């Protein structure tokens, strides 16, 4: 969900526009907020796990096409939970995945096979990390390639 304050709208400095969502049969959940210092946000709307919902509604009548409720309220900024930037979380997740792939590829080049197990030297993590650091020192754009 995208929410933003229009240019003509200004909240008092200590206030925020908080957004909540409620799935049928569940309480309202805080999704995020916008305020003068952060006038726009892309918010993830949490939704119950379909398997969990099926267990909870076993024996009950399910309503097909039920709609969620979205609540918006002006609240004290200090009283709200910290706002999580979904875009930043995805970028960090992508970075972690790319670094993990780099480690895996490095380890794979030193792997041996013992039955159904892959065997790597004990110092493989130290060797990889040292190589990773040296490459990042030599080439400042090296780390930027991981976050694309």
Automatic annotation (TrEMBL):
Hikeshi-like N-terminal domain residues: 2-79
TM annotation in the entry: none
A Pfam family recorded for this sequence: Hikeshi-like_N
Top-level division of the source organism's lineage: Eukaryota
Domain Hikeshi-like C-terminal, chain residue ranges per copy: 92-144
GO biological process terms on file: protein import into nucleus
InterPro entries, alphabetized: Hikeshi-like_C (IPR048364), Hikeshi-like_N (IPR008493), OPI10 (IPR031318)
A GO cellular component annotation in the UniProt record: nucleus
GO molecular function: nuclear import signal receptor activity
UniProt similarity note: Belongs to the OPI10 family.
Protein name: Hikeshi-like domain-containing protein
Lineage of source species: Eukaryota, Viridiplantae, Streptophyta, Embryophyta, Tracheophyta
């Amino acid at each position: 969900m995208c929410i933003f304050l229009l240019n003509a709208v200004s909240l008092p400095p200590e206030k925020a526009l908080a957004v909540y969502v409620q799935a049928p049969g569940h309480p309202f959940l805080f999704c995020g907020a916008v305020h003068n210092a952060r006038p726009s946000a892309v918010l993830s709307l949490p939704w119950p796990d379909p398997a969990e919902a099926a267990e909870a509604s076993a024996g009950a009548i399910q309503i097909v096409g039920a709609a969620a409720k979205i609540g918006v309220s002006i609240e004290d900024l200090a009283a709200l939970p910290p706002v999580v930037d979904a875009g930043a979380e995805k970028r960090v997740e992508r970075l972690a995945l790319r670094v993990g792939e780099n480690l895996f590829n490095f380890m794979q080049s030193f792997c041996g096979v013992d039955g159904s197990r892959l065997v790597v030297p004990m110092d493989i993590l130290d060797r990889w990390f040292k190589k990773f650091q040296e490459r990042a020192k030599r080439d400042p754009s090296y780390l930027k390639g991981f976050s694309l």
